[in-house]
Amino acid sequence: MSEVYDLIVIGAGPAGYTAALYASRADLKVLVLEGWQPGGQLTTTTVVENYPGFERGIDGNQLMREMKKQAARFGTEIKSQNVTGVDFSGRPFKIHAGGEEYQSKTVIIATGAKPRKLGIESEERLWSKGVSACATCDGFFFRGKVVAVMGGGDSAMEEAHFLTKFATKVYLIHRREGFRASPIMIDRVKANEKIEILLNKTVEEITGEAHVTGLRLKDTQTGEISELPLDGVFLAIGHIPATELFKNQIELDAMGYVLQTEYTMTSVAGVFAAGDCTDSRYRQAVTSAGSGCRAAIDAERWLEAQE
Ligand code: NAP
């Protein structure tokens, strides 16, 4: 019989490491299973300028290394294993990773979300070199520049509007005629003189070598190809929460985000969730870290109440 942890954290972004830090400091026996992308989405960005405490910003990878070390300092055990299955039907909960079965009295799901991508080679090559999926994080770097926002939902409207604070011109590019976004958001974008809307356009290629220099667009109705010179491309075509593993174990909403019942608790008592896998709205490192803290406190109190 393997040992039973007090808490297993699945996922190692700001939410996961913060949860581990708090739980370890509360003297719980904690294991973090890091999964497919240790450090989470911050490891794909460059400088993080909006995480409090770093006047000049901090490299995303470095920030995550520091969070990991801080959690480890208080005794968190960390394994670089991908979770392949969970069983929350009985206690202790069972988690399969790296060919092993782990057992725990509580679990925090902090598996994050991935921005949906266009699926073209150039977006990977130019990621963080002018291609971003977070205007709040990276908009500041485009002061005085020309950018495009891809998408026709509320995020695209919000990001296009936000980016006009910095950019001289913002193209909102959508693949069809109709928008998914709410009328009020569309009206705000239409009223903004810095935004030009391009409809029925798909991206053939993001051009540039060291950084983004433009877009090659295809008109979906005429097939015409056009070039659009610009400095930055913001993807706002949705996010995909990394919750596939849990769909038969806990309740998810229609978009796949983890539903929370009491505070950070999921539909299964003793299983908690934090970070972007629960959050389609804020998606910031600092809000994720905050929710990791909340989940750890909830897990600790729930454990105490069981004893
Ligand atoms: P969304 O509503 O799913 O919209 C995604 C947009 O991206 C759609 O216009 C979609 O086009 C387009 N798209 C998807 N895949 C694409 C691809 N491969 N290539 C090109 N375009 C693609 O996502 P969201 O805007 O992130 O919003 C998610 C949820 O958060 C929504 O419920 C939204 O209301 C909410 N939200 C609310 C606020 C707010 O109230 N302030 C702000 C942001 C988000 P099609 O329409 O053609 O499918």
Molecular structure report:
With 307 residues, the protein is an alpha/beta fold. It has helices at residues 14-25, 60-73, 121-125, 135-138, 154-163, 183-190, 285-306; strands spanning 4-10, 30-33, 47-48, 58-59, 77-79, 83-87, 93-97, 100-109, 113-115, 131-132, 146-150, 169-173, 195-198, 201-207, 214-219, 225-229, 232-235, 239-241, 271-273. The strands form five sheets. Strands 1, 2, 5, 6, 7, 8 and 19 form a seven-stranded mixed beta sheet that branches. It is elongated. The chain starts with a strand and ends with a helix. The model has no long low-confidence stretch (mean pLDDT 95). Bound molecules: NADP nicotinamide-adenine-dinucleotide phosphate. The site of NADP nicotinamide-adenine-dinucleotide phosphate (NAP) has 17 residues, from helix 5.
Distance from N terminus to C terminus (CA atoms, Å) equals: 22 Å
Oligomeric category: single chain
Percentage beta strand: 25-35%
- Give the helices and strands as they follow along the chain: EHEEEHEEEEEHEHEHEHEEEEEEEH
Low-pLDDT ranges: none
Radius of gyration: 21 Å
Instruction: Find the count of extended strands (DSSP E, 2+ residues).
Output: 19
Mean pLDDT: 95
Number of H- or I-type helical stretches: 7
Structural class: alpha/beta
**Which outline best applies?**
elongated
Q: Biggest sheet, open or closed, and with what strands and sense?
A: 7 strands, mixed
Helix fraction by DSSP (H/I, runs of at least 4): 10-25%
Bound molecules: NADP nicotinamide-adenine-dinucleotide phosphate
